[in-house]
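Hi R.,

Here's the chain you asked about this morning:
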Amino acid sequence: MDEKYTVKTSKMLSRILRHDPGSVGVSLDAAGWVEVDALLAALARHGRPLGRAQLDHVVATNNKRRFAYSEDGRSIRASQGHTVEVDLGLPAVTPPDVLFHGTAERSLRYILAEGLRPMSRQDVHLSADTGTAVTVGSRHGRPVVLEVDAAAMARAGYEFRVSANGVWLTDAVPVQYLRRTS
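And the predicted structure, written out as tokens:
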């Protein structure tokens, strides 16, 4: 499987497993899981055939580790980023003192006025390092990295969770916990 096809397939799976499972006629359970066999059959019915070995390759090689298999390997879900309602069942955890959020410079004015909100997603996504935040921010223009005082947020009662691929999740980040680093 070549890199271009792998990326294209990963993006298709992200759209289906995060945003629009009905586009291929599957449903996610309450925790975001869909049976692998049902997904592969639905993809084939919609002219997008994908074999289990190809799916395994996409899951294993995705640099963002966007997907996870259930313990028995029979189901798959997106690790985070859903716009459809799911409960990933992630426990609350103590965050590191500082987390980071990468965004495009054009969004900075709104963020510094209103804080970070999940927008169409279920959670605000935060990174544990500035490098990842820069990469995330670069997707939509000139990147800006914001430092999040996660320790102060946790002391104030805000809850944090971490997804299977290391993305930190929280409901919102009020302005007083943000500081521009770049």
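The mean pLDDT is 94.

Let me know if you need anything else.
M.
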